[in-house]
Structure formats: structure tokens, C-alpha cells
Design goal:
alpha/beta, seven-stranded mixed beta barrel
Length: 356
Amino acid sequence: MPQVKPSITIEGHAYFSDKTKELVKWMPSEGIAVIQHQDIDEMAAISFVQKNVKAVLNLSSSMSGQYPSSGTKQLLDANIPVFDVLNKQEFKDTFKQGCKLNIVDETMIWQGQSQLQRISPVLRYTDDVLDQKEKLAKQNLVHSLRAFTENTLSHAYREMDEILKTYDLPLIANTLRHRHVVVVTRGSGYIEDLRAIHGYIQEKKPVLIGVDGGADAIIECGYQPDIIFGDMDSVSEEALQSGANVVVHAYPNGYAPGLEVIKAHGLQAHLFPCFGTSEDAAQLLAYEAGAVLIVTLGSHTNMFDFLEKGRKGMGSTLLVRLKIGEKLVDAKGVRLLYPHHQVEKSGESTCILKTT
């Protein structure tokens, strides 16, 4: 039998951005986050938990049922209610940043730009709703896997010439030659991955490359990035000012939107034109520069990772991994081989790594 929904009342000031990772940078703690984020992913959930938001309102489907997304359940486990707005366009058209918003059970009341009080129904995520969405995701899994595989192989075929060509490397690439390299992405399990290879980092002193927000992950866990690589869309000012060398990922034609971010901070950067994601390009840079070993950390490695990132395939990632071959080691799972390593958290976002 369906569970009886306990009554819920939420009051607070609401803040909206259609880019979740931008919203968490500037919205105040204990606000109500309003997002437009199909299938809330794990890292978005973690960022909202760290921000201590009162609730999450979504103008898209928090769980579409197309694949098993995990973020919504993580938010509910952290006692952060999640709602889908049903009158999406009306809400978006009349919304005002910082407006007071009340939610009582499955009804939302807010004061729009015209100061008139407005009312909209919302879908509240409960255990019953989660169960329904998870069953739907299982039903859709075969279709999602087939579509993802076809997209991956199609893009890999079209991009094959890119992986085979000779790359013009920036001067900073010389510092990677004959070195161990760790490429850090702020992805699922990055803290646990860093914990697992702490001894390796202490012994080998590898070059630490942070891919965009991965640079903040490196700093968060007590290290300093040597290189910050990416399109600079999610890296903090603190990381950019850390003294690390900066390499901006450019499109194959040389266009690099991330340079605007670097110029705005008065910094200098190297360019690396390359196909694929910034994560792919960082690994390829290390390989072409002559790195001895490339360790990926917090990286995207499977269909669910890529679907959560909003990509329908992983063609470039497949090609890069095929090219790098045995030089590539993924830190995921290493912690299962060395369970004696310990990790302690100091505050909400800082991890201190130790070995016993």
C-alpha cells in the first residue's frame, strides 16, 4: 500500500539559475535552490548538501526515469526536500530572485515580480515516488544502453582522425615528460579516490592536474594543483590564484572561451586545442607529453556517469583510453585494495588525508 505522506511546510527565500554549479557559488546558505536540471546528479546533490539549502525546486524532472540517477535520493537522505514545479513556464516568467516562497505539502505559494501572490502545484519526491521512478529507470535501461552505445560508436568513428593526428603541445608539457601524472576531476568518489592513493602521491610526487573544479578538489584535500586544465567554467578564483600553471582547453579550431575567464583574473595561460571533453584532453596532453603513468581520479567511466553529465555518448573518451592504453590507471576501486587508509573531514568541505 502507498505510504501516507507526512505533512511538510517550508518557508524561505528562493534563488534561481539554470546552471546548478553556478547557483551554488552565489546563493546564500539555507536558501531554497531553484534549478532547471534534468536528472539531478550526485555532484549537484553534494553541492546542495554542503550549501545547507532548505529545499530544491526543479523546473525539469528531478528523476526522469530514463536511467538510474542518484542525486534526488541523496538529497532526500540528507533531509533536503525535492519538488518538481508543475506550472514551470508561469513560475519562470514571474520569478524574482530572493522572493519569499512557501511550500505546504504539494502547493507552492510565491510573490512574483508584480507583487501578486501566485500559487502552483508541485510534485513532492517521497519514497513512493522514488520507487516508481527507479522501476521506470530499470524498464528503460536496455533502451538507454543501446542508444548510448550507438552514439558512442558513431562519434568515435567520426573523430578517429583527431585521435591519430600529431598535437601541438604547449611549453608546459615539458614538465610532464617522464613523470607520473594524476588527472583530478571533481566527480563521484573523488575524496575516497584521493585517500586511496595518498601513499602513492607521497612517494612518487606526481604532477597534479585539476580539470576545472578538480583543481578545487585537490586544494580541498590538502594538496596544491600543479596545472589547472579546462574551459574554466567551474574552477574557483582561489584555485586560479593558487600559483598553478593554467592550460585552457580550446576547440580544435583554436577557439577558447575559457580565455575570457583567465583574462578577467589578470592571469596568463597556455592553450591546448583538442577534441573531446576537458577530461579527455587533459589525459591526452599528459600522454603526448611523455608521462610515465597517468592516474585518473573522480573521472567519468561509465554510461551513468556520462548521462548524469548530460552527454549521450562517450566517443572521445573511448578513443583516448584506447590510445593511452596501459599507461592509464583509474583510481576508482583502488580504495578496495587498501582499506586501511583513513580519511577525516574537517569542516564541511575540507578533507585531511592520513595513512595508518
